[in-house]
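Thread title: Can someone regenerate the structure for this chain?

I was given the following input by a collaborator and told the matching structure tokens would be attached. They weren't. Posting the sequence so someone can regenerate them.
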Amino acid sequence: MIFMPYQEQDAQKVISWITSERMFYQWSAGVLGDYPLTEDRLNAFYREWKSKHRYMVFCLCDDEMQPVGQMIMRYPDEDPKHIRFGFILLDPAYRGKGYGKVMLNKAITYARDYLQAETVCLGVFENNDGAHGLYESLGFRDTGETEQEELMGETWNCIEMLLTLK
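Best answer:
Regenerated them for you:
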């Protein structure tokens, strides 16, 4: 498996992995607008963010260089030692087989070794037990901070998690 920069032609494959409205909001927290997502809207969002934020979009690719996972890394503030992971998504055919852990381990290594980050944070909705368990297995810990989002007519709690790299 190879960790590569996202390319706009990856959008079709990435949005095909979103198999329900609930999954879309668990992944995007509504930041990408309404369900369903289109390739054009995903790429426009990433282009707009690139002009406003310091962030990177990556894909985990198989041996044929086909994306099987996607995520972003960004600097949430001016501290270059702090990275935020987000928009973490895996092809359904690869879920439950360790590929999420592979992708996140590659991202953690990149953040620590290349970006010289000392901490990584992320948010996960409490209704996403699988993702929360994956992040805990990698050493992320709940910070005790939560935010509430109104999504799909419900109130969802987003748990803030932190991983110390040093």
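The two ends are 26 Å apart (CA to CA).
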